Input
Amino acid sequence: SAVISQKPSRDICQRGTSLTIQCQVDSQVTMMFWYRQQPGQSLTLIATANQGSEATYESGFVIDKFPISRPNLTFSTLTVSNMSPEDSSIYLCSVEEDTYEQYFGPGTRLTVT
Amino acid sequence: GESVGLHLPTLSVQEGDNSIINCAYSNSASDYFIWYKQESGKGPQFIIDIRSNMDKRQGQRVTVLLNKTVKHLSLQIAATQPGDSAVYFCAENVSGGYNKLIFGAGTRLAVHP
Output
């Protein structure tokens, strides 16, 4: 499977600031996804990011709060804007290889103080 | 340590025993299912998948069973080892439109020597 890396691996940020998380894949993939995993919880899809098109956001997530870029087939970024303590979570990117199979990066652990 | 799995149901087993982790999925239109393993501080790791036209699939030490009648999925781990200790998530792909995985709540597996 593809090797997926994320930067930063963790960060502590002050409320009101923004953080951009990077996701890099070692092969070209069409579909990339961003998830949030709140403390002790399961994974919730934030948005689907396809190269060359606007990201598709799930209910409860909006572009102003979580802008996403997908400039090419190996890279994507997720920005968490105007952060509050409720945004403290693990943010994960994933890629789809064969039909429906998704593989995940190691995650970015965000703490907002 | 990480907070993944702190509030999840826990299955405790003795090393060497077989483990069965259950999952009830939500959508009768789901056509593809994945089991993920998430260790502390890591992203979810793909374990095994099954398509809706099958009711059983085996991997190395793992078996997934699918019962579409009652919308139930299970993961069986043979000869459970301490390295199997983790949080396990089932995920379903809802067919139609673009690919989207919906994750279950997760189960923490604790293996005792």
